[in-house]
Amino acid sequence: MKPWRTTMYRIGNSEVTAVREAIKSGRLFRYANMTGAKEQSRVEAFESCWEKFTGSAHCLSTTSGTSSLICSLTALGIGPGDEVIVPGYTYIATALAVLKAGAIPVIAEIDESCTLDPKSLAELAGPRTKAVIPVHMMGMPCDMDSILRVSREKNLYVLEDACQAAGGTYKGKILGTLGDMGVFSFNFYKIIASGEGGALITNNRKLYERAFMEHDGGGALWPDNDDIKAPFFAGGNSRNSEISGAILLEQLKRLPGILSDLRMVHRTLSGLLEPAGPVHIAPSRDTEGDCGIQTTLLTDDTVSMRKLLNLLGEAGVEADSPVDSDRHLFYNWDPILSQRGAAHPLMNPYKMPANAECRLDYPEDMLPRTRDIVSRTIMIRHNIDWSEKDVMKTAEKINRCIQKAAAS
Ligand SMILES: Cc1ncc(COP(=O)(O)O)c(C=O)c1O
Fold it and tell me: Whose CA is nearest to atom 14 of ligand 1?
């Protein structure tokens, strides 16, 4: 097995210095500053910067993308009796968060862009459906115009899962800002990373306050938080730490460089590729806004996909297919497909009387289009440190593989 990297892209001395300073400051907790100093905590400072970067009125940083999803769903009032539509290609956490809120995930098809198919959303939205979670997988923007149109028609909340898409845009707007709420993950395998961490954003103060209360059950009792006016309810603890805040403030400075380098590779590589025979470039809902993590190819059939993937492997090009990614495909989501929705039987949303009228079953042959698309898709992984010359060499290798695949 290859050794795991500490983060997906860039981390270094400035993060080390920031963490050292955070520890030396004696302040590791965002509230109730024990040192007596007046300055913002590092988590709060990150929240302010993320609000500015995304152009959102409110940001709440949490311990993870999952906890940000749960806090957002709670804020939106999602619970037993509600269905939430999620795509069949996303990390399992998107669907698990819906169960944590007591609601039922209804799983929709993706289209050839590997993101939620708005047609499937329109077909699936039913009387119990209260929200949709479009997921900008691998930094690829969803077709937000169509998703927002359907959501308006069907009266659905839109919670964007931008966990894999920090800084991506759709028609010039930052991903996560197009719906009612947006969430981000900063775990080690994300565009910016603090090991673990997350954030949610919204322009709605009421939603922010409810999310805040869910993220910190006792938070409203700290003197720092006397501006939280939402009615008190029992929340949990998803507070982000000052160590994570210190790292994120440094990562944020790196984000524009990370995105511009990834996008340079993406733009250059896509321009040089010569699709042929059964190999095509996959459609994108916004090529400019895509974070540039990978170049996505679409083949005509699974046999061609496997053939090309093998050729790429032999040529030393880092590539894989979503069909091989375990927890990101709905048919591997065991606890969901087998309706084990919680540890305690009475907390299992699939058994709750309030959910009796929701669609609880996941037929074995569900989502044929998603199965077909992922089995024909190849993702070429970009190296952020490639120069234009490196990209040209890689493009030559890929083109040779495409030619061989087309000829065989
Ligand atoms: C699309 C998506 N949603 C949600 C999450 C959950 O984020 P976290 O691991 O920070 O809880 C992830 C993390 O990999 C993800 O990729």
Answer: 91
What would the pLDDT profile of 192-207 be if each residue is shown by its tens digit?
999 999 999 999 999 9
In contact, 252 and 49? CB cutoff 8 Å: yes
Residue tagged 């590791």 (tokens)? 28
| Of 336, 329, 169, 168, residue with least CA distance to 258 | 168
380 three-state secondary structure? strand
Give the per-residue SS3 of 236-282: CECECCHHHHHHHHHHHHHHHHHHHHHHHHHHHHHHHCCCCCCEEEC
Architecture of domain 13-252: 3-Layer(aba) Sandwich (3.40)
CA angle 166, 167, 169 (to 5 degrees): 115
Counting atoms of ligand 1 from 1, which one is nearest the CA of 90? 1
Ligand 1: centre distance to CA 15 (Å): 22
Q: Which amino acid belongs to residue 54?
A: T
Q: What is the CATH number of domain 256-324+370-407?
A: 3.90.1150.10
Q: Give CA–CA dist 340/354, Å, rounded.
A: 17
Per-residue model confidence as pLDDT tens digits over 132-166:
999 999 999 999 999 999 999 999 999 999 999 99
Q: 185 in helix, strand or coil?
A: strand
Give dist(CA 189, CA 381) in Å, integer. Answer: 13
Of ligand 1's listed atoms, the one at least distance from the Cα of 135 is 1
- Parallel/antiparallel/unpaired status of strands 104-108 and 83-87: parallel
* Domain locations in the chain as residue ranges: 13-252, 256-324+370-407
pLDDT greater at residue 225 or residue 91: 91
How many Cβ atoms sit within 10 Å of the Cβ of residue 26? 11
Q: What angle do CA 9, 331, 7 make, to 5 degrees?
A: 10
Instruction: Evaluate whether 13-252 and 256-324+370-407 have a shared fold.
Output: no
Q: What's the rounded Cα separation, in Å, for the pair 13 and 192?
A: 15
Q: How far is the CA of 329 from the centre of ligand 1 (A)?
A: 13
The minimum-distance atom of ligand 1 relative to the CA of 136 is: 1
Task: Give the chain's length.
Answer: 408
pLDDT of residue 36: 67
Ligand 1 pocket at CB < 6 A:
64-66, 90-91, 93-94, 135, 161, 163-164, 185, 187, 198
